[in-house]
C-alpha cells in the first residue's frame, strides 16, 4: 500500500487501489519556486525597466522618442509614396471645409479651425504612433468647447478665443501626463454602452445646434435638448425658406455621396469629396446670385498662424473639468480608432505613446492659435480606405491646409453658413448608433440600461452630467460584478474526470457530504464577505447530490481555485476565520489547483499549514477521491456505532429521530478524524477508495 497524500513528497506520484482493484492516481501539488522565502522571485518593476533601458540600442532609443523613425527607416518609396500622396490629398481636401465647420460649431471664427488642422498634423506625424489616424478638429470636442466657454464669456469676445486656445494647452498637458504615467488603462472601466449612448446623444445635440443655419434665425446655444427645442419653436415665426432649401439640398448631396462612397469601392472618392463639393457649389451660387437671405462666412485672414503663448491662465481651474472631459474623449475616440487601424494594417500600437503624441500635438498647436484637436473617426476611415501607409499622409494633409491658409482664404469669404452646417450634420449622422441600442436590448438588458441612462441624461442634463452619470453607473456595475463574483457548484461529467458547473450540466455527478465550489474571480477584501456567505449557503442548503452514501450534511468543501488570479491579505484572514468556523462545525476545507502566486501567498500566510498540506491538490478529481475515501470508510463505522447504541438502549423505540441523526453524525466525524489521524500515525497507509460504481 502506498503512503498517504499528506506524507508524499512533491516529486512523487501516488497510486492507490480501490476495493474493485482499479488503480487511482493522485498527483501531488508542488510548492512554487521561492516557497518559504520572504522576497518574490520576480524582480521589482524599476529593476526590470533599468534592464530594458540598458539593453536598448541607439535605434531603439530613437524609435522610443520619435515613433516616426519606425516607419521612416522602412519606407518604401515606390510602393508607399503614391498611396500616401493619394490619401493625404484626399483627406486634406476633406479637412479644409470640415475644419471651418467645426470651428463654427465651437463658437470660433472659421480660421481657428484651419489653424487646428495645421500645426497639430505635423507634430502628430512625428510623435504619434498611428500611421493612419487623421488628427484635427472634431465635432464632439468642438461642442464641448462651445458648451463650457459659452457659459463663461460671450463668443464674440477676444477672451473666448483665448480660453479655447488655453484649453488646447491644458488638454495637451493632461494627455502627456497620462501617457508618461501610463494611465491609459483607466479608460477601460468605461463601458462601450456608455460611449455609444453618449456619442448618440451628442450627435443629436450637435445636429440641433446647427439647425439655426437652415432655419435662418438664431437659436439658443446649449448642450441640452429641451432649451434647444424651445428656442427652435419660439423663433418659428422668423423661419426663412432660402437657407432651409439650400441647406437641405447640400445635406442630401453630402449623405448621398457619403453612402455611395461607402457602398462602392470604385466610388470611395465621393465620400471624401462631398464636403468640398458642397462648399464649391454653395460659393459659386452665392457669387452668381447674391441671395440676401443666405448668410456667408465673411472675411478670413490670410497667412500662417503666428507663434504666441496661450493667455488667460487665471481661468485654469474653471476650465479643468472640461479639459479632463476632452482628454477622456480623446482617449476613447483617438486611441480606440488608432488601435483598430493598427490591427488592420499589421503593426502594434502603444496607447500610452499615442496619448503622449496627441498631447505634444495639442501643446504645440496651442502655441499657434489652435483649439483642442484629436483623432477624427470619419477622416481616419477615409485615410485608411484611401490607402495611407505611413504618417507621411498626415504631413501632406498639413501641407494642403497650409496652402489653403496662404493662398485660398479670399475664396472662402462667400461660403454659405448653411453649407458648413450641412457638413457638420452629415458628419455626425454616423455617430447616431441606434442599432447598438437594439442589439443591446436583445443581448444584455444591463448594458441596454447603461446605454439608455447615458443617452437620456446627456440629452436632458447636458454633456458633463451625461458623462458623469454614465461613467458612474459603469463603475458601479464593475464594482458590483467584482464584489459579487460568479460562484459555481461543480460536478463530475459522467465517464470523465472533468468537473463542470452543475447548472450547465445537470447530469454531472455530485457526491453526498462533499461540495465542490469554483470561485470565478480574484479573492480580495471587496468580495470575500460575499464568498463566505455563499459558502455558508451551500452548507445550510445542501445541494442535491446523486452519488455516494447519504451522510446528511456537508463534511468537505473543495475550493477549485484555478480561476483565482489573486488573493489579498483581507481574504487570507477571512479564509483563516472560515477554517476555524468550519473546524468547529466538523467541516474540512480542501484546495484544488491554485496558481503559483496564490499558492505562494497561502503558504506564506500559514493557511496551507492550517488546512493541512495533505488537503491541497492539483486536480479537483484528486480532492474528491480523497474525500470519498474518508466518507466511505468513516461513514460505515459511524453507522455501526449508531446501530449498536440504539440496540443496547432499553428505550431505543422512544429515542427521537433527531437524536439518532446526531449520534450518527458525531460518530461519523469522530471516525473520520480517527481514520485520518491513524493514517498519519501508521506510516501513511491510504484507505481503500470507494467502489468503482460510486466513483
TrEMBL record:
<keyword id="KW-0813">Transport</keyword>
<dbReference type="InterPro" id="IPR002645">
    <property type="entry name" value="STAS_dom"/>
</dbReference>
<protein>
    <recommendedName>
        <fullName>STAS domain-containing protein</fullName>
    </recommendedName>
</protein>
<dbReference type="InterPro" id="IPR001902">
    <property type="entry name" value="SLC26A/SulP_fam"/>
</dbReference>
<keyword id="KW-0812">Transmembrane</keyword>
<feature type="transmembrane region" description="Helical">
    <location>
        <begin position="134"/>
        <end position="153"/>
    </location>
</feature>
<dbReference type="Pfam" id="PF01740">
    <property type="entry name" value="STAS"/>
</dbReference>
<feature type="transmembrane region" description="Helical">
    <location>
        <begin position="318"/>
        <end position="342"/>
    </location>
</feature>
<dbReference type="Pfam" id="PF00916">
    <property type="entry name" value="Sulfate_transp"/>
</dbReference>
<feature type="transmembrane region" description="Helical">
    <location>
        <begin position="239"/>
        <end position="257"/>
    </location>
</feature>
<feature type="transmembrane region" description="Helical">
    <location>
        <begin position="269"/>
        <end position="289"/>
    </location>
</feature>
<feature type="transmembrane region" description="Helical">
    <location>
        <begin position="193"/>
        <end position="219"/>
    </location>
</feature>
<feature type="domain" description="STAS">
    <location>
        <begin position="504"/>
        <end position="627"/>
    </location>
</feature>
<dbReference type="GO" id="GO:0016020">
    <property type="term" value="C:membrane"/>
</dbReference>
<keyword id="KW-0472">Membrane</keyword>
<feature type="transmembrane region" description="Helical">
    <location>
        <begin position="449"/>
        <end position="479"/>
    </location>
</feature>
<feature type="transmembrane region" description="Helical">
    <location>
        <begin position="106"/>
        <end position="127"/>
    </location>
</feature>
<feature type="transmembrane region" description="Helical">
    <location>
        <begin position="81"/>
        <end position="100"/>
    </location>
</feature>
<feature type="transmembrane region" description="Helical">
    <location>
        <begin position="391"/>
        <end position="412"/>
    </location>
</feature>
<dbReference type="InterPro" id="IPR018045">
    <property type="entry name" value="S04_transporter_CS"/>
</dbReference>
<feature type="transmembrane region" description="Helical">
    <location>
        <begin position="419"/>
        <end position="443"/>
    </location>
</feature>
<dbReference type="InterPro" id="IPR011547">
    <property type="entry name" value="SLC26A/SulP_dom"/>
</dbReference>
<dbReference type="InterPro" id="IPR036513">
    <property type="entry name" value="STAS_dom_sf"/>
</dbReference>
<feature type="transmembrane region" description="Helical">
    <location>
        <begin position="159"/>
        <end position="181"/>
    </location>
</feature>
<keyword id="KW-1133">Transmembrane helix</keyword>
Amino acid at each position: 500500500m502506498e503512503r498517504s497524500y499528506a506524507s508524499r513528497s512533491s516529486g512523487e506520484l501516488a497510486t492507490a487501489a480501490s476495493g474493485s482493484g482499479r488503480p487511482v492516481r493522485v498527483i501531488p501539488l508542488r510548492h512554487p519556486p521561492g516557497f518559504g522565502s520572504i522576497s518574490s522571485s520576480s524582480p521589482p518593476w524599476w529593476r526590470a525597466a533599468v534592464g530594458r533601458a540598458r539593453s536598448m540600442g541607439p535605434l531603439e532609443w530613437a524609435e522610443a522618442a520619435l515613433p516616426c523613425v519606425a516607419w521612416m527607416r522602412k519606407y518604401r518609396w515606390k510602393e508607399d509614396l503614391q498611396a500616401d500622396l493619394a490619401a493625404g490629398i484626399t483627406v486634406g481636401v476633406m479637412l479644409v471645409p470640415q475644419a471651418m465647420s467645426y470651428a463654427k460649431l465651437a463658437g470660433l471664427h472659421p480660421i481657428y479651425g484651419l489653424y487646428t488642422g495645421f500645426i497639430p498634423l505635423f507634430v502628430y506625424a512625428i510623435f504619434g504612433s498611428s500611421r493612419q489616424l487623421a488628427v484635427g478638429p472634431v465635432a464632439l470636442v468642438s461642442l464641448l468647447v462651445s458648451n463650457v466657454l459659452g457659459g463663461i464669456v460671450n463668443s464674440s469676445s477676444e477672451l473666448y478665443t483665448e480660453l479655447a486656445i488655453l484649453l488646447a494647452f491644458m488638454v495637451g498637458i493632461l494627455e502627456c501626463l497620462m501617457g508618461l504615467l501610463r494611465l491609459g488603462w483607466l479608460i477601460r472601466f468605461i463601458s462601450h454602452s456608455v460611449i455609444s449612448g453618449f456619442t448618440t446623444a451628442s450627435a443629436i445635440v450637435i445636429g440641433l445646434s446647427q439647425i439655426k443655419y437652415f432655419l435662418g434665425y438664431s437659436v439658443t446655444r446649449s448642450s441640452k435638448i429641451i432649451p434647444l427645442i424651445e428656442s427652435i419653436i419660439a423663433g418659428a415665426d422668423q423661419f426663412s425658406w432660402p437657407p432651409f432649401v439650400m441647406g437641405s439640398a447640400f445635406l442630401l448631396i453630402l449623405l448621398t455621396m457619403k453612402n455611395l462612397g461607402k457602398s462602392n469601392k470604385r466610388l470611395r472618392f465621393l465620400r471624401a469629396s462631398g464636403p468640398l463639393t458642397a462648399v464649391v457649389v454653395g460659393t459659386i451660387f452665392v457669387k452668381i446670385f447674391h441671395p440676401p437671405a443666405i448668410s456667408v462666412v465673411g472675411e478670413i485672414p490670410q497667412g500662417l498662424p503666428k507663434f504666441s503663448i496661450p493667455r488667460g491662465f487665471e481661468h485654469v481651474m474653471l476650465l479643468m473639468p472640461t479639459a479632463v472631459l476632452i482628454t477622456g474623449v480623446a482617449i476613447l475616440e483617438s486611441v480606440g480608432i488608432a488601435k483598430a487601424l493598427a490591427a488592420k494594417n499589421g503593426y502594434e500600437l502603444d496607447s500610452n505613446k499615442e496619448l503622449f503624441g496627441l498631447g505634444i500635438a495639442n501643446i504645440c498647436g496651442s502655441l499657434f492659435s489652435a483649439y483642442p484637436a484629436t483623432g477624427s473617426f470619419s477622416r481616419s476611415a477615409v485615410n485608411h480606405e484611401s490607402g495611407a501607409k505611413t504618417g507621411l499622409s498626415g504631413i501632406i494633409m498639413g501641407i494642403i491646409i497650409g496652402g489653403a491658409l496662404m493662398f485660398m482664404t479670399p475664396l472662402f469669404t462667400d461660403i454659405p453658413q448653411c453649407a458648413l452646417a450641412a457638413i457638420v450634420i452629415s458628419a455626425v449622422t454616423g455617430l447616431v448608433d441606434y442599432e447598438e441600442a437594439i442589439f443591446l436590448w436583445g443581448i444584455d438588458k444591463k448594458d441596454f440600461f447603461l446605454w439608455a441612462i447615458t443617452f437620456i441624461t446627456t440629452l436632458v442634463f447636458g454633456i458633463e452630467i451625461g458623462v458623469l452619470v454614465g461613467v458612474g453607473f459603469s463603475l458601479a456595475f464593475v464594482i458590483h460584478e467584482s464584489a459579487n463574483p460568479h460562484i459555481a457548484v461543480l460536478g463530475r461529467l459522467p465517464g470523465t474526470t472533468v468537473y463542470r458547473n452543475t447548472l450547465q450540466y445537470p447530469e454531472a455527478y455530485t457526491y453526498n457530504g462533499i461540495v465542490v465550489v469554483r470561485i470565478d474571480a480574484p479573492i480580495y477584501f471587496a468580495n470575500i464577505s460575499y464568498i463566505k456567505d455563499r459558502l455558508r449557503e451551500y452548507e445550510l442548503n445542501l445541494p442535491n447530490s446523486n452519488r455516494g452514501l447519504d451522510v446528511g450534511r456537508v463534511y468537505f468543501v473543495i475550493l477549485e481555485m484555478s480561476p483565482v488570479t489573486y488573493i489579498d491579505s483581507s481574504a487570507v484572514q477571512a479564509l483563516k476565520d472560515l477554517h476555524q468556523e468550519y473546524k468547529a462545525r466538523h467541516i474540512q476545507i480542501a484546495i484544488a489547483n491554485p496558481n503559483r502566486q496564490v499558492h505562494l501567498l497561502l503558504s506564506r500566510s500559514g493557511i496551507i499549514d492550517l488546512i493541512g498540506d495533505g488537503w491541497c491538490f492539483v486536480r479537483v478529481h484528486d480532492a474528491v477521491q480523497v474525500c470519498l475515501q474518508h466518507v466511505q470508510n468513516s461513514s460505515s463505522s459511524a453507522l455501526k456505532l449508531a446501530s449498536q447504541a440504539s440496540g443496547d438502549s432499553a428505550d431505543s423505540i422512544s429515542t427521537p429521530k433527531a437524536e439518532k441523526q446526531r449520534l450518527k453524525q458525531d460518530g461519523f466525524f469522530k471516525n473520520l478524524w480517527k481514520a485520518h489521524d491513524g493514517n498519519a500515525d501508521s506510516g501513511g497507509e491510504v484507505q481503500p477508495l470507494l467502489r468503482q460504481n460510486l466513483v
